[in-house]
Amino acid sequence: MRCPKCGTENQDGAQICNSCGRHLKNDTSEKPVAKPKTSKLAVASFILSFLAGIPAIIFGIVALVKIARSAGRLKGNGLAIAGIVISLFLMSAFFLWTLDAPPIPNDYTIADLRSAPKECEQSYELLKKLADENDLSPDAPAIGLSQQDVNDLDKINKISKEDDYENIYAKLTANAENTLRIWQNAQKGRDIINQLNTFPEIADLTEPFIFAFPKFLGNFRHLVLLHRDFVCLQSCQGNEEIALNELLNLDDVVRKLNVNVRSFITKLVYIASFAVNIETANFIINNPKTSEDSLKLLAEHFQPLTNERTSLRNSMIFEYLMFKNELINMDKKLKHFPFLKLNSTLRLYKNSCDYRIAAEKSCQEFEKLSVWPSIYPELPVQVDPNGITPWYYKAYNPVGSLYLAILMPAYGKIFQLNTKLQIRYDLLQIVLNKRLGKEINLKARAYGDEYIVDLENKKIFSPGPDGIPHTKDDIKLMINPEVLNFKK
């Protein structure tokens, strides 16, 4: 055994150096101490804490045990503890993030929709008879029109877009033969309209599913446009009684349909039908040959729309139910995908619906639902007209926020169209009162202080949502200044 001090070789097992007397055994004061190694499990625990919580916790605990038993040969307590703590924190945060709001108590159902009485349900079956079997067919056999009839009808309807009464009169007269032919061929569809008008109300039994598009709407639109062409032609030819009977009969049907309408798509068709009937009535009013009795009959029928007629409550609830069914089906397919918070999304959507319903009633108070899990702080969340939600709600419910961002702008446009319809009724009332020699009020309900009478361009109009006159979004009615006795 070599002496570490003087280097002398001594016998194996010697305890004292023969040369210098140094103790060769049990003298550990000069022994080099091995440096402790960092536990690989501790390192793994720390790294995995950001990626996989449970393995990180297991590795961290095992690392702490081995470090404690290593008698100083291993280190890394801090890494192991950090891995465990970070994993527990992230797992808790993820668990809290996946929590959904509770289900909505007493949620909307089909029973909340305004519906026609039981005895009127047959009217819906009549409506469905307007639908063609082949949606892609260019003709309309369900109402008796050939492809040529449909094409000619489209051409005649472009005449109504003219801005001058005399031009419309001349072109309608020139196309009288085609109009009368199409009118006769559409007898099947006109018979259905007449049968519908025998009901006190017309039912809408559409089920709230995403592809619930009533197939009869296209042909109903054809009939509305055909009535305008025929009625205006009869007015030009001096057949007042026929013109008024057909217009008022159709408008009664549209009013009955509008009360119980469900989907927004159907509502849009009925709003457009109202607008066409207003233009038709306006044509008759501006006809210098129209008698005072006919004008009074129009005034009696075309009263300002009631809140019941303009309400979008039914459609909002229906669309909510349709959206809810679709969202539930998606949630099932995705097996409760944590990026979609089903109940929270529905609560936020319902709040938007209830807010608009309350606004219709000029009531700003409604029971607002919390969109958060019960253990969350109550942060304010609203959906703006463009469907945008606060950033913190997007982080919590990214898929639900995306759905709302897609839906809300479209709904805003529908509310705008509903306002435009009410403005058209206002304009019609002004024109009708002016023709009857009554006082008129140009006070506007939206988009400006007053409606504008433009004698040079022969129209009365609202500047529309942009507030700028003579742009594409003007809401207007043609006028015949001499007949209405408007003076420059």
| N-to-C CA distance | 130 Å
Extended strand count: 5
What class do helices, strands and sheet pairing give? Answer: mainly alpha
Number of helices: 18
- Poorly predicted segments: 26-31
User: How would a crystallographer describe the biggest sheet?
Assistant: 3 strands, antiparallel
> Could you spell the SSE succession in H and E letters?
EHHEHHHHHHHHHHHHHHHEEEH
Strand percentage: under 5%
Query: What is the CA-atom radius of gyration, in angstroms?
Result: 39 Å
Number of domains: 3
What topology, given as strand order, has the largest sheet? 3-4-5
Helix content: 40-55%
Mean pLDDT: 85
| Tertiary shape | elongated
What report would you give on this structure?
The protein is mainly α. The protein has 3 domains: 1-32; 40-98, no CATH class; 110-314 and 414-484, no CATH class. It is 54% helix and 3% strand. The chain has 18 helices and 5 strands. The chain has helices at 40-48, 53-69, 77-98, 122-128, 147-157, 165-174, 176-185, 187-196, 217-236, 240-260, 264-286, 292-301, 307-310, 313-333, 342-360, 391-396, 398-435, 481-484; strands spanning 37-38, 74-75, 452-454, 459-462, 475-478. Strand 3 and strand 4 form a beta hairpin. The chain is elongated, with a radius of gyration of 39 Å.
